[in-house]
Amino acid sequence: MPKVHIPTPLRQYAGKQPAVEVQGSTVGEALSGLVSQHPELRRHLYTDEGKLRAFVNVYLNDEDVRYLQKDATAVQASDNISIVPSIAGGRC
Hints:
about 90 residues, alpha+beta, Ubiquitin-like (UB roll), five-stranded mixed sheet, about 15% helix, globular
């Protein structure tokens, strides 16, 4: 099964796990499986309309899925999916 790597700030909503194995043949299905297992993650990853939040970046084996087929990107059982929230703020 593909493995979804959870960033540290979101682990509290995923049973404090650094990664979760999920079912799915696409990135979208895998993320859907993740929020099915850990419903508290949904509000941090998705808008009320069900779209992935703009500041949430998803990588499949180190490749940004925005430059592949987005949530329709096919995944294999050995693949790693990483959720990487954008970081902003601070002063210059």
